[in-house]
Amino acid sequence: MKHRDWHVNGEGQCQACKSVKVWNLLRDNYRLYRFLTELEDILNDVQDQTSRLPQIQMLVRRLLVNSYWVQSRHLEPCPKTGTAVLLLYDELGFPFTVQTVTFAPGTKSNIHNHGTWGVVAVLKGQEKNTFWYRNPSREFPDKIEQTEQLTLLPGDIISFTPDAIHCVEAVGDEPTVTFNLYGETDPKQRFEYNILTHMAKNF
């Protein structure tokens, strides 16, 4: 199966990115701690987000290619909520969220942005993403409009700018499992959107 790389911006535009060949990413003993150290180096050395996100996507793919442990670390979805989140790393002062998320088939998220950059890789199942952009009017300053949809398959990786708006749905007959990596969220810039009332609230 061909692995695909995608990027979504605040205008709701989903762009295909050039993928690194898997055999160029193979490493001996490449573990989570190496990934975290290299991630921190990118954040410290590369200030431009346009240049930073492709490098982080490449790091995520390198981790998944070399670490069966990461790919196997996920929970079964909760029967009540249809979701489960497993935090893989948490350290005071380390400004990243590293986790796997499981969605039961048919489970759908609200419409939201993350208030930070994000990189998501599909490990199992299928995840349909619907993208939106802000289209404010005088009456509804938080109004959004849908742009396009994309179904991600195992091996696909997608990155998001802090203002990218989307919702996700697990499609198919099996749970969807994703590896999720986020920067430090700005709570004042993270929103949940209501397309019926054209309003947004902090999420």
What does this structure look like?
The protein contains 3 helices and 13 strands. The protein is an alpha+beta fold and 203 residues long. The protein has a domain at 5-17 and 76-202: Jelly Rolls (Sandwich), CATH 2.60.120. It has a 7-stranded mixed beta sheet, covered by helices on one side. Helix 1 (32-45) packs antiparallel against helix 2 (49-66).
Write the layout of secondary structure elements.
Layout lengths: L4 E4 L5 E4 L14 H14 L3 H18 L1 H5 L10 E7 L7 E7 L7 E2 L5 E7 L1 E9 L9 E9 L4 E4 L4 E7 L4 E7 L8 E4 L4 E4 L1
Parallel strand pairs: 1-9
Antiparallel strand pairs: 1-2, 3-4, 4-11, 5-12, 6-9, 6-11, 7-8, 7-10, 12-13
Helix pairs in contact: 1-2
Distance between the termini: 36 Å
Which spans of ≥5 residues are poorly predicted at pLDDT below 50? none
Which sequence of strands runs across the widest sheet? 2-1-9-6-11-4-3
**CATH level-3 fold name of the domain at 5-17 and 76-202:** Jelly Rolls
Q: If helices are DSSP runs of H or I spanning 4 or more residues, what is the number of helices?
A: 3
Could you spell the SSE succession in H and E letters? Answer: EEHHHEEEEEEEEEEE
Largest sheet: 7 strands, mixed
Secondary-structure-derived class: alpha+beta
